[in-house]
Specification:
Elements: H1 3-30, H2 34-58, H3 66-79, H4 81-98, H5 109-124, H6 130-133, H7 135-160, H8 163-192, H9 198-222, H10 226-251, H11 256-284
Helix pairs in contact: 1-2, 1-3, 2-5, 3-4, 4-5, 4-10, 7-8, 7-9, 7-10, 7-11, 8-9, 9-10, 10-11
Length: 289
């Protein structure tokens, strides 16, 4: 390894350590759990120690990546601590692999790699986050809304042929279905005695449902062409499925590809059948709006 390449690699690791120190420190300050905060501070101190060890080699200070710090702190607020930490751990796994390039060249490398491996075990103790306890309720709301609304909007697109009217009908159907689904989830959770709060379960289900309704209806409110709106609606549906399955794959270590294609197949399948029903209603029954 050339000296310049070696120096650049060390500086890259040094910058990464001080950046992760700032991220873990910020997350520790913002989390309400004392247990989680303590573990995060411990990891932050490890990262700072690693930074200082790299600094002894490079002989210079390196500033943290403020953009990366802002990104991960914001992600923790939006998507939760568990998802953000596991996403960061994927980066640390990559760093451990790259450390192999320095074996035999840097004395502290084996200890640093060992510390990075220990982080993953510590982070597993953090997985006590409310939104993950209610992920089943969120899945229920998203899944049901995607299947029902893609189907309903596809059928209405051909049956009504008016974007604003389709949007209005879709919102009415969606909001009514969201309240019905939330009520069902409340009663179901209460009957199960699973330890989850019935009201919280119903709220998570209802919010997930309403969010999906508005996301799918949005193209019909913006665009005048019903078929173009339908295309955009289906694309938005697929993006929601992709994002949510990616979230689950990271936060809960679930396989992404299988669940993603299952949800896409079901949603698009129902949409296709409903579109056919709309065509039948409009063509053979002579119903025009």
């Amino acid at each position: 390894m050339q000296k310049s390449t070696f120096q650049n690699l060390i500086e890259q690791y040094q910058a990464n350590e001080i950046t992760e120190y700032e991220i873990y420190k910020n997350l520790a300050e913002n989390t309400k759990s004392k247990k989680n905060s303590k573990i995060l501070r411990q990891i932050a101190e490890d990262e700072l120690r690693h930074y200082k060890e790299w600094k002894n080699i490079t002989g210079k200070d390196i500033a943290p990546d403020r953009g990366k710090i802002w990104l991960y702190v914001t992600m923790a607020k939006l998507f939760g601590l568990t998802f953000t930490l596991k996403l960061m751990e994927k980066g640390e796994d990559s760093a451990q692999t790259n450390y192999s390039q320095l074996k035999g060249k840097v004395k502290a490398i084996e200890r640093i790699a060992k510390d990075e491996g220990k982080h993953e075990q510590l982070l597993l103790e953090l997985l006590d986050e409310e939104r993950l306890q209610y992920v089943g309720s969120i899945v229920l709301g998203l899944n049901d809304a995607l299947v029902e609304l893609t189907g309903s909007l596809a059928g209405l697109t051909l049956a009504l042929g008016n974007s604003r009217l389709i949007a209005l009908t879709g919102v009415i159907i969606g909001v009514a279905a969201a309240m019905s689904m939330a009520a069902s989830e409340f009663l179901s959770t209460k009957a199960e005695e699973s330890g989850k709060h019935p009201l919280k379960s119903s709220v998570y289900t209802g919010i997930a449902y309403i969010f999906t309704v508005w996301a799918l209806v949005l193209p019909y409110l913006i665009l005048k062409n019903p078929l173009l709106s339908l295309t955009c609606m289906l694309i938005i549906g697929i993006l929601i499925i992709a994002f949510f399955n990616y979230y689950l794959s990271v936060a809960l270590d679930k396989p992404f590809r299988r669940s993603f294609f299952e949800m896409v197949f079901v949603s698009l399948g129902v949409a296709g059948i409903s579109f056919g029903i709309g065509y039948f209603v409009r063509t053979f029954l002579g119903v025009e709006v």
